[in-house]
């Protein structure tokens, strides 16, 4: 899969589309108005960029446009995690994991999942 770099704003739109699709611009404006205050024009520009990057597909139905994610969430998260690790270049993953644990409020289920993932990684 090709590399697609997402800005913080594009992550907001993609998360919205990954959670529910298809969506219209009006639905996205409504969903994001409290958090971002973005106008219809701003969201339209961002969606056009995402389409040009190959992350979003636009379907015209009459006068209405519907938007679908094309770039899978798993691929985006994997790419972002790899990029982040490359940027911070710590000598060990301990600092990264301890910072994440301190800064996040993990649920018991998330802690169990992380423990399982780490155990599986050690076995390989």
Which descriptors apply to this entry?
2 domains, Arc Repressor Mutant, subunit A, 10% strand, mainly alpha
Q: Which range best describes the helical content: under 10%, 10-25%, 25-40%, 40-55%, 55-70% or over 70%?
A: 55-70%
- Average pLDDT for all residues: 89
**The top level CATH class name of the largest domain:** Mainly Alpha
Total E-strand runs: 2
First CA to last CA: what distance?
24 Å
Low-confidence parts: none
User: What is the count of DSSP helices, taking H or I runs of 4+ residues?
Assistant: 6
CATH superfamily of the largest domain: Winged helix-like DNA-binding domain superfamily/Winged helix DNA-binding domain
Task: Classify the oligomer.
Answer: single chain
Biggest sheet: strand arrangement:
1-2
Reported for the largest beta sheet, the result is: 2 strands, antiparallel
Q: Beta-strand level of the residues, as a percent range?
A: 5-15%
Q: What best-fitting shape do the alpha-carbon axes yield?
A: elongated
As for the CATH topology of the largest domain, it is Arc Repressor Mutant, subunit A
CATH level-two architecture of the largest domain: Orthogonal Bundle
Overall radius of gyration: 18 Å
